[in-house]
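sry for the spam today, last one i promise. C-alpha cells for design, 272 residues
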C-alpha cells in the first residue's frame, strides 16, 4: 500500500518543481477513493502547517455519464485554500500561471454557504432547495486546474490525491440567492471566449442537471463519507465545469458570459 503522508509530500513537490509523476493507481492497483481521500487529508495537514487555511471545496466528476464509466456513485471533491481562492474586481481579475505545470480553465457556478448555516447533510440526503437555503450568495467563477500526471490521464482516486487538480478559483460578482434561482440554474447558458473569440459553449445542465443539484449531491456525499466531512458554515463551493476544460497560456484573456444570473460576466487575464 502507498503511504498517504509520503505520497502527499511527493505530489506537493511535483507541483512545486513542475515535474510529472506517475499516477498512484498505476503504481498500486489497490489505490482507491478511500486511499485518495487519505492523501487529501494529509495535504490538508501539510497546507495548514504551511499557514494556509481551507476555505471551501471543489467538485469533480459532476457528470453521471462518467460515473457509469468510472464506477462512481457520487461526485468527488477536494479542499480549496485561502491562497488559491481569488475575487475579481468589477468582473475582472488577473492570475499568474508561471508556477503551474499544465493549466486549464473551467467556467463554474460558485456558492458561499451562510455563516450561520448548519452543517449540511448529517447522513441524510439533501435536495436542491435545502442546499440553496443554506447559501449566502451565488457567483460565476473560473476554476484553474493543473495536472502533474502525464497526458492528463488519471483515475478518480488519483484526481482526489492531487489536490483535486485545484490550482486556483477566481470568483466573480456575488449575487444574492432568490427563490427563482432554483429554476434558472438548469437553463443557464455560458459562452467561453479566448481573446474575444468564442471557444466553447455550455449549460447549467452539464453539472448534474443543475449546479444546485450538484451542491446538494456534494452535501450528501461528504456527510456520508467515513469519517464524515459535512459541508460547514462559510464554505465556498465550486460546483464543476459547465464546458470542456480549455488549456490556457500567458498573455491570454478569457471571458465567460452567462444568459441568466442577470447577465453575469467574468474576465480573467492570464499572466506569467
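last one done:
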Amino acid at each position: 500500500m502507498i503511504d498517504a503522508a509520503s505520497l502527499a509530500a511527493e505530489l506537493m513537490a511535483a507541483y512545486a518543481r513542475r515535474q510529472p509523476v506517475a499516477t498512484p493507481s498505476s503504481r498500486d492497483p489497490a489505490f482507491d477513493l478511500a486511499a485518495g481521500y487519505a492523501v487529501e487529508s494529509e495535504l490538508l495537514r501539510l497546507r495548514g502547517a504551511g499557514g494556509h487555511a481551507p476555505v471551501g471545496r471543489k467538485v469533480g466528476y459532476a457528470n453521471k455519464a462518467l460515473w457509469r464509466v468510472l464506477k462512481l456513485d457520487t461526485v468527488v471533491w477536494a479542499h480549496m485554500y485561502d491562497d488559491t481562492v481569488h475575487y475579481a474586481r468589477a468582473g475582472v481579475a488577473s492570475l499568474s500561471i508561471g508556477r503551474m505545470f499544465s493549466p486549464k480553465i473551467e467556467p463554474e457556478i460558485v456558492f458561499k454557504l451562510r455563516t450561520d448555516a448548519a452543517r449540511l447533510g448529517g447522513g441524510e440526503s439533501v435536495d436542491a432547495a435545502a442546499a440553496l437555503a443554506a447559501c449566502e450568495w451565488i457567483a460565476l467563477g473560473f476554476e484553474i486546474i493543473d495536472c502533474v500526471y502525464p497526458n492528463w490521464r488519471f483515475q478518480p482516486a488519483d484526481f482526489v490525491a492531487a489536490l483535486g487538480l485545484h490550482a486556483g478559483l477566481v470568483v466573480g460578482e456575488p449575487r444574492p440567492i432568490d427563490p427563482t434561482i432554483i429554476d434558472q440554474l438548469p437553463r443557464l447558458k455560458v459562452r467561453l471566449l479566448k481573446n474575444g473569440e468564442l471557444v466553447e459553449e455550455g449549460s447549467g445542465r452539464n453539472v448534474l442537471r443543475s449546479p444546485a443539484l450538484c451542491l446538494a449531491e456534494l452535501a450528501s456525499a461528504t456527510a456520508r463519507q467515513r469519517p464524515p466531512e459535512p459541508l460547514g458554515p462559510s464554505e465556498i463551493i465550486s460546483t464543476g465545469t459547465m464546458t470542456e476544460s480549455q488549456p490556457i497560456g500567458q498573455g491570454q484573456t478569457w471571458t465567460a458570459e452567462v444568459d441568466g444570473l442577470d447577465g453575469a460576466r467574468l474576465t480573467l487575464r492570464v499572466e506569467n
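The radius of gyration is 17 Å. ok im logging off now
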